[in-house]
Amino acid sequence: MGIMVFDFGGSAVKYGYWDGHSLADTAQFATPATWEEMKGSLAETCQEFTEKYSVEGIGISSPGVVNSEKQVIEGISAIPYIHGFNIFKELENLFGLPVTIENDANCAGMAEFYEGAAKDHRDVAFVVIGTGVGGALFTDGQLNKGAHLYGGEFGLMFLEGDQTFSKLGTAVQMAWRYCERKGIDKTTYTGKDVFDLAEKGDELAAEEVERFYEYLTKGLFSIQFAFDPEIIVLGGGISAKEGLIDQINQRMKKLMDQFDLHDFIPQIVLCDYRNDANLIGAAANYLAKSQGEV
């Protein structure tokens, strides 16, 4: 028996089959324009998988604030039509199988916590760096969603004036700042482009790269001393950047020295899973819920 998993995204819905050890048959379809169309695509995909595999249930990674107790997705997201009704019940009726749903950042964190880079730890901060900053927090072996389900929203921390971690500490924002200073459209260069330009001697690019590393490290420093995790796991596209951890560690040491903090060295590692993290996390969430662990 295994689990069919879906990852709802603004442009695509990814899916696959988790057999307890690995993902199989991963693919995707374009995110439909309406809820009725979405249900049709989900049902069709599930039918194909149940004909091929033994499926015990459905695990879903979703944007938005997932309120499992009320069985509603609250807040806002890139898929407006999934909000504000009992989506759990409607999908269980659709599939004829048990359904679990969790926020996508929490799912990515659960993939690392249960199966990946943080598997042997109980107090973990998972920080995903994309266009903005999100994440998940685990306390004493449990996903800590917080009193209002905003646990792990690290991107809302202010780092400088009225500028947040999400506005300052990502490679996407770094590229946008570079383009703005050049007086060109902000989509002209990507974060990778700016890193490459800095390595080739572009002084403006080098300045923005340095700012990025400084802001990223400040954000991680704040997370470390606000929540005191055993380990911080970095996810998102930036996790593929060669030398990232070395750059962070150099700056982290300066901050530790600045505050005369020498009791320990923050442990910061890269995620094990990237593109499949949300799907694996959806499976991990399903299994944890079925076993009463979350």
In a nutshell, what does this entry contain?
By secondary structure, the chain is α/β, with parallel strands linked by helices.
What would the keywords be for this entry?
39% helix, single chain, 14 strands, 9 helices, 5-stranded mixed β-sheet, 294 residues, alpha/beta
Can you give a write-up of this model?
The chain is of the alpha/beta class and 294 residues long. Helices cover 39% and strands 23% of the residues. The protein has helices at residues 35-50, 87-95, 104-114, 165-168, 171-182, 191-199, 203-227, 244-258, 277-290, and strands at 2-8, 12-18, 23-30, 55-62, 65-67, 72-74, 99-103, 124-129, 133-139, 142-143, 158-160, 163-164, 231-235, 268-270. Strands 3-2-1-4-7 form a five-stranded mixed beta sheet, with helices on both faces. A hairpin with a 4-residue loop joins β5 (65-67) and β6. α6 (191-199) crosses α7 (203-227). It is globular. The chain starts with a strand and ends with a helix. The model has no long low-confidence stretch (mean pLDDT 95).
Instruction: Give the structural class.
Output: alpha/beta
Number of helices: 9
Helix-strand topology string: EEEHEEEHEHEEEEEHHHHEHEH
Number of DSSP-assigned strands: 14
Which segments are poorly predicted (pLDDT under 50) over 5 or more consecutive residues?
none
Helix content: 25-40%
Strand order of the largest sheet: 3-2-1-4-7
Alpha-carbon distance between the termini? 21 Å
Main β sheet profile: 5 strands, mixed
The Rg value, from CA coordinates, equals 20 Å
Strand coverage percent: 15-25%
Q: What is the overall shape?
A: globular
Mean pLDDT: 95
